[in-house]
Amino acid sequence: MEEMLVSEHLPLVHYAVSEMASKVPRHVSRDDLVSAGMAGLAQAARSFDPERGISFDRYASTRIRGALLDELRDRDWASRSVRAKARKMAAATDQLTAQFGRTPTSSEVAEHLGMDTTAVEAVNEDVHRAVVLNYDSILSQGDAEDIMPSDTRSPDSVLVERERKAYLHDAITSLPERLRAVVIGYFFEERSMQDLAEELGVSESRISRMRAEALALIKDGMNSQLEPEQLPEESRPSPRVARRKAAYYAAIASASDFRTRLDAGHRIVVPAKTSTVA
Question: Taking 60 as the threshold, does the pLDDT of residue 273 lie above it?
Answer without folding.
Answer: no
